[in-house]
């Protein structure tokens, strides 16, 4: 996946400009930067949930699995039903890597609504494995995970990278995975930069 | 698509899914009518088709604000956008699930409630036919309204304000079929209009709904 | 030099500042002359007496109520296709004006209807259609106010305007169908559009219609300017906050 000269806006105001990086199979890239720097906005653009102001994103379409703060779980469905729904949506059928990878098998028949926050998060991350998509785009994946669960996530991530997948993450935690680091604050957009933001015509 | 339909149906049927609420609402509305206009059989008979149609329409409206708002809250709507499903199809499926869990039970219950309102004998069949033809349009138009208001906090009231005017043609033709049927008149003209309206709406509205949903979530 | 250059907010403001005085003056002259001529310079109708004179408010308001929606439809299409901000804001600015025009048409219709039809309100197809139009205006304005992001609001209201237009036309025909189904052969004389109006009534009516059209234009230009300044303020503010 190749990102070149990307500018993104939040609420009509440009936040990042000129972001460029490449992500090869087997590689991980960690986004760093203070709160409000535009990490989430950048990830949403790459996941296709938001239009960038300018620039190009190549090789991401239909290859990205996105996970953000909300896990997309239905409280009244069991763990297995939640996973199998997303597996079917993405045209996959094998749930066992997801159940095993995050130690969810003992919980498989519990309703998702009865899980603890950390367990829900594990289920949310397990969803990535049933999408079959090679590029993981993760926004703060380790929120509400304890040390053991972070280790689980780290090992699943290593397996994903070893199998030729790649990952783009916004996280502050060291996952024990070899990753490049991109500090987005270097790309902070000048407040008056004319990047074609929606309200620029009014200036 | 099938997975989405099954998931929505399963969610509706599980505890807290709200299945049956629309039906109960329909029953209550119909029960309140004699209290408000008096128990006179002749009067009830005259207004029965209209009251039943109005009750069904309001019951359909009731569950619309859950149609997409719940999926937005737990994040599955955004994840669906990144999934390889066409959004138009996903919304059509959600409208179908809404109809199966809300519209269809109303259709089946209407003739029984018609008895309570002294609906004339031939009217039951026509009421059933008109509701069966008209309620899918209500679900699809409602899905458009839900997509339009999905990003808005406390959009429930706004949803009603936007959707109800769009329901007018369906209500007019649907209630006209039921009324003419109950009066023993030829109902084929409004029936054809109703069927045409429903087909057009089912064919086109998912596209409009998908368009506004993409705009609203961007 | 093309018309589209005025789609730039700044250029639009400059132009509107230049034309507004003339626009307001013309609107005042045509509306004033039309109404005064109509009220005081025309004879009473043989059948309707002096009540007929409400026509000089009723018909122009009704005309502009429909034309305002039509203008919003065109502006919405321009926004969706070419994404000119002025277009979206003009549609937003026109909606309350159209709403008030609809309200005037409904109220004057009721006041006129009372002595003529013996009732304040009849479920006549035309009247009912205007009530539906009123609801569409309400929904449109409410949606503008409910959506926080201005561009998203413009997108959503534009689609609502398109879909609403289709349903408004559908409703119009459905209502005609429904009313005939209810009471066949109504004898209510609906607004003068169907009848030929005598010349003595006609010219002041045309004046008033032109006047209302100009008034609508002036109000929309003025309100669009206000909306543009609002957007400009918030755009500047957003940048100041980020710069700080």
From TrEMBL, chain A:
Superkingdom is Bacteria
Q: Which SUPFAM superfamilies match?
A: P-loop containing nucleoside triphosphate hydrolases (SSF52540)
InterPro entries cross-referenced by the UniProt entry: AAA+_ATPase (IPR003593), ABC_transporter-like_ATP-bd (IPR003439), ABC_transporter-like_CS (IPR017871), ABC_transptr_haem_export_CcmA (IPR005895), P-loop_NTPase (IPR027417)
| KW tRNA processing (keyword) present | no
**What GO MF terms are annotated?**
ATP binding; ATP hydrolysis activity; transmembrane transporter activity
Coiled-coil annotation: which residues? none
One of the GO biological process terms: cytochrome complex assembly
According to UniProt, the name of this protein is: Heme exporter protein A
The alphabetized UniProt keywords are:
ATP-binding, Cytochrome c-type biogenesis, Membrane, Nucleotide-binding, Translocase, Transport
Q: Which residues form the ABC transporter domain?
A: 1-203
Residue ranges of the TM segments? none
UniProtKB/TrEMBL annotation, chain B:
Which key words are in the record?
A: Cell inner membrane, Cell membrane, Cytochrome c-type biogenesis, Membrane, Transmembrane, Transmembrane helix, Transport
Task: Name one process (GO BP) from the record.
Answer: cytochrome complex assembly
Localization recorded for this chain is:
Cell inner membrane
What is this entry's stated membrane topology? Multi-pass membrane protein
From the record, give the transmembrane residue ranges. Answer: 12-37, 43-64, 96-119, 125-150, 157-178, 190-213
| Signal peptide range in chain numbering | none
State the PANTHER family in the record: CYTOCHROME C BIOGENESIS B-RELATED (PTHR30070:SF1), HEME EXPORTER PROTEIN B (PTHR30070)
Q: What does this protein do?
A: Required for the export of heme to the periplasm for the biogenesis of c-type cytochromes.
Q: Which family does it belong to?
A: Belongs to the CcmB/CycW/HelB family.
Pfam families, A to Z: CcmB
Write the protein's name.
Answer: Heme exporter protein B
- InterPro entries given for it? Cyt_c_biogenesis_CcmB (IPR003544), Cyt_c_CcmB_bac (IPR026031)
Question: What one GO molecular function would you report for this record?
Answer: heme transmembrane transporter activity
**GO cellular component annotations of the record:** plasma membrane
Automatic annotation (TrEMBL), chain C:
Give residue ranges for domain Cytochrome c assembly protein. Answer: 14-183
Q: What is its main location?
A: membrane
Q: Looking at the keywords, is Nuclease present?
A: no
**Pfam families registered for this protein in UniProt:** Cytochrom_C_asm
Report membrane topology: Multi-pass membrane protein
Keywords annotated in UniProt: Cell inner membrane, Cell membrane, Cytochrome c-type biogenesis, Membrane, Transmembrane, Transmembrane helix, Transport
Q: Which GO terms describe its molecular function?
A: heme binding; heme transmembrane transporter activity
Q: Give the GO biological process terms.
A: cytochrome complex assembly
List GO terms (cellular component aspect).
plasma membrane
**Membrane spanning segments where?**
21-40, 60-81, 93-113, 125-144, 156-175, 201-222
Subcellular location per UniProt equals: Cell inner membrane; Membrane
The answer to whether keyword Oxidoreductase applies is no
Classification via NCBIfam families: ccmC
The function of this protein is:
Required for the export of heme to the periplasm for the biogenesis of c-type cytochromes.
Q: Which family does it belong to?
A: Belongs to the CcmC/CycZ/HelC family.
User: What is this protein's name?
Assistant: Heme exporter protein C
User: Which species is this record about?
Assistant: Sulfitobacter delicatus
From which lineage does this chain's organism come?
Bacteria, Pseudomonadati, Pseudomonadota, Alphaproteobacteria, Rhodobacterales
| Name of the gene this protein is made from | ccmC
